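User: I've been going back and forth on whether these two constructs are worth ordering. Before I decide, could you fold them both?

Assistant: Sure. I'll take them in the order you sent them. The first construct and its structure tokens:
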Amino acid sequence: MKPAPELALDATVVPAPASMTTTDWLLVAAIAALVGFAALLALAETSLTRMSRAKAMGLVEEKKRGASTLLALVQTPERFLNPVLLLVLLCQLIAATLVGVVAEHLFGPIGVAVATAFEVVVIFVVGEAAPKNWAVRHPERAALLSAPMINALVRFPPVRLLSAILIGISNLILPGKVTTGPFVSERELLALADVAAEEDVIEVEERALIRSILDFGDTVVREVMVPRTDMVTLESRAQVADALEVAMAAGFSRMPVYGQNVDDVVGIVYTKDLMRADLAGQSHASVAEFARKAEFVPETKRVAELMREMQQKKYHMAIVVDEYGGTSGLVTLEDLIEELVGEIVDEFDVEEPRAERLANGHIRVNARMPLDEVNELLGAELPSGDWDTIGGLVYQVLGHVPSEGEGALVDEYRLVAEKVQGRRIGRVRIIATAADAQNQTVEEIQPAQAAAADTTLSSGDAISAVASPSHGEDGGRPIVNNDEEAGPGGQGEGHRHLGPTLSGGGAAASAASSPFGESLGARPSGQLWAGEAW
């Protein structure tokens, strides 16, 4: 009897993993070296690109080891960045290839999957993520550690040659001129100051000073000057005694002197010179005899340049002229300093706040408040143009001189002229409105009367407010306008808040209220004009 035939079974036999050979061990060692070198290059790339030139200069001043080499690299980042990126790519590609060779020899057909998993996990974690995260957490330490190595690599001729060739090929593919710097913009500096203040690295006042310094370079004289309507001036024919009374009433240490009109400024007189002349018995002499030379600057001059000029030539006041040669206003050294450190007010100043938030949520601001400061206060973007102040914006939108309580809708805000003196807006109330603000009725605002408006003349003469400081009623001879503020000794500067001019209608002004609580007696030589403080 024949035995039954055996059934043939098809089976796939999986080969057992091959054993490691000497070549495999050498390849594994090469892979480890390449991954380690790629990790160092990744650490160097992150730390050097995050290192600013200012920080590198600080490390040099601290005499840190390797700081000089680090500064040289940071000053020319194009020298190291492309070679480092090229070497990182070469290391990772060669390591991935060697991993594939070893995995195929050890595991056969499934070696590709093993190699892919190894490359994703090991090469990414060890060669990329871990060193870069460490460099982010310790940027200075990582930069100082890697700077000598990177400096040596970029000087190695084969690396420089290969990098230059490949960059040249890329430039052929993507032609265009390479632009350099600036590597730090003004906006980035402001953002850096904000972050430093939030993290308590600097004080809030220091951040404000940094912002003021950066804005200072972009500010022109027109934005900080005392406008022509606020100037206190003296006619050249005025007597010393009259001029002294004006100086004491206004509290100024320097005042411009004009000839025919305010556009004809012939000099600047110092209150101390007038006091010396009065003590010497020259009270009836003309002011022109004691006037000093006046400095003139265009209204478009940069305030930073003007401050340097004032320091070099040692003068504190300049007359601002427009493109036609007419007087636009005046500017003092104190006005320029206030742009940096804020308003300078002494114990004798009586001024309303530039901005005041009311109980009903409205905001009251001085009409002369610069528009950029209003935007910063509101967090808004009110339109800008040929006007510099919030009052100028109201004029632009309305197209005429507003009456008190009249307002205009601008974006999401209603701007109401709260106080109008003659043709001049004194204060503006800002009201945040809803979408249907145009249909809403805004209650008319009754402005408070200024204390100086109640000034009366003991002789019974009428006091009339005039819009222009250069022309009076009843033949009144203008003596004053505005200049800079003085303390009790007449040496202060920078006051710019005198309002409409008051003129006596008779032969002489009998008495006028003084900021120091004094009374000015009538001068037989002519009329006295005094300014009304807001």
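The second construct, handled the same way:
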Amino acid sequence: MSDTQPNHLDQLKLAEERDQEWLKNVYRGDQERDLTPRAIIAGMIFGGLMSLSNLYVGLKSGWGLGVDIAAVIVIFAVFKALRGAGLVKNEIGMQENTIVMTVSVAASWISSAGLVSAIPALTMLTGYQFIWWQLTLFIGVVLLLGLFMAIPLKRQMVQVDSLRFPGNVPTGETIKAMYAQGTEGMKKAKAMGISGLLGMIIAGLRDGPGWIPAQFNLGWHINRIGLNRLTLGFEPSLIFISIGALFGMKVGLSMLLGLVLNYAVLAPQLINDKIVHHAAPQIRATAVPQFPLTVAAGQTFTVVLTEATATPELAPDTAFKTLAYTWSQPVTYASLGAIQNDLSAPTLPDGSPNLFAQSLAVSSVLNKMLHTNVLVLTAAGATNWDARLAIPTNQPESLVAALGFKPGASALQNVGGFRNISAWSLWPGATVLVVGGLLALAFQWRTLGRTFASVFSGFSDRKNAPKGVLDHLEIPMTWFIVGFVGLGLVATLLLVWLFSIHWWMGVIAVLMTFFLAAVAARAGAEIGMNPIGAMGKVTQLTYGVMAPGNVTANIMTAGLTAGAACSCSDTVGNLKVGHMVGANPRKQFIAQIFGVFAGALLAVPVYFVLVPDPNTLGGDKFPAPSALVWMGVAKVLSQGLHTLPPSAVEAIFIAFAFGALVVVLDRIFPKIRPYTPSPAALGIALTIPGSTSFAMFLGAFIVWILERRAPKWNTMYTVPIASGCIAGESIMGVILALLAAFGIYG
């Protein structure tokens, strides 16, 4: 233990020295206008509009778009044009633009607070009807809770640990390049502009007309499964390569280790062992039978089921099973239920076994286009390997059409795929992520203790209280105490009032939120990605054990923790950008509060416009894939932990031990730290597609080569080029999303 004390003191001393240097050479908050009314209003307007874009895109695809770089560039251009037209006296300055970015990002958080995941999941699963002002209040409290949780973490991660923040550095570099002066600054700005244009072109050609394929796949196999089924293709995107270029080789190798372990070793074996499943192939009728419907004796309805048996993938010569239902006597049906009962009966009218019902489940489901129920055929047992369900055309089309089906209709379900694999790998991934993050944070108890000690300095003798170089600029810790306690109490009351969740469950959810927010913030600082899904699943797993059968508690407590954790991570990232450009952190924090109000007050009412009733969700218009995942996990875990595959439970314990071991070894033997994997990177790699992890590794590897072959060029251009690529693709993504939202394209 004696070896750790000097390290701790040296770390604090070094942080103080960096603070002094920053205050002297970087800080510009007293030299420029920053928290101005026009900056706040511009940020609220742009961020509010982008919150609508993220809401629409999230309900469509489950993804959200980063708005920080777009906000910086768009507002800069708008005010430059306004000044040229004589409508404003001054262009927007660097610090004002930083405030605009801060407000805009805070407003765009709205979708991550559950508006595209937990909220629609609860609606689809239980039919819960939200009232707009109550939902606005709940979303706002979730985001503000995460905002205040970031206060004690900012100094630790930005100044003490000096983490890389690969997802935020491009924004800071963009701001600096736009306001650069001198030859070096202009060179960096030019490099960033060219790479940004390249990023826009690639994203536009890929996501627009599709002239660039969305994925390049090799025809290779691992354990009889194609690489494309294992997400081991190559995505022509510069975003993740550029993010990898910013976070270093250790993280890059950890991502590579995670993708190889998950997608090249575990997934193929789990698929072959029939542990990783896919959805059952299902054919839905496209029309409603015209009643009364008469079927003559001797008529037969035939469906063909083909399942892979020798290998996980279907082969051309795979045997198939013909499933036929033959009417032995004439029948006249007056309702859909009567047809369903006959097709599902264990025996035919003549008493012989109904082979049709032995392999197929016949049900009915609401067709949202027709506004009525239609028949559905599901091969419920065909969930292990490739399976195809088809209605052959070599049968009387009149009977097929009379039942509402389309002759020749088929449904194919393939093994693998990200959603199927991640349904298993998410559990060990979230475990190693959380354990590694919390344990690493626990080992920083001395420096964190010093941060929290500032809370009590206001109640002690000011002359004797410890003072930091930046205490007059940092966000006061008293704000954290008041915000966390007050908003935590309000969040608990809302869980009790709106969702009838026991008060003690609400308290536990708030306490969990703080620790998971710390994990999410560290993951964002190290990897550049917010593990929203993983954080939510940790809470869902916890409440699956504490409150089995209570799906509302399972979903909404997870919505609270995941939303606040994401808000916390983004807040720390915003403050990192401000630290890069010399902004006042206290004023940035205040600016983010305006952003939260803008996003909540604008996006929530629009959510009710887009989703007027639960039937809107889960269809072609708004598939809400994130909500479907949350709903599926809630269904499983509401029945208890035993519903998880035994191998997943074993993997959770192994991941727990591994994450703890790595952090402890790093602490005891600091010299091996460069050679041990990053738990955060490893956990993230288990919860994202393999192609994404490979792109990040590739970026880190390229920079590793440049550091050795062209160190000066690397120092000069790597960050601007990577930042430009991220900015270009992000902006084009926003443009395409807006065009799609207004029905102009896509």
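Notes on the second construct follow. The longest helix spans residues 551-581. The longest strand covers residues 300-307.
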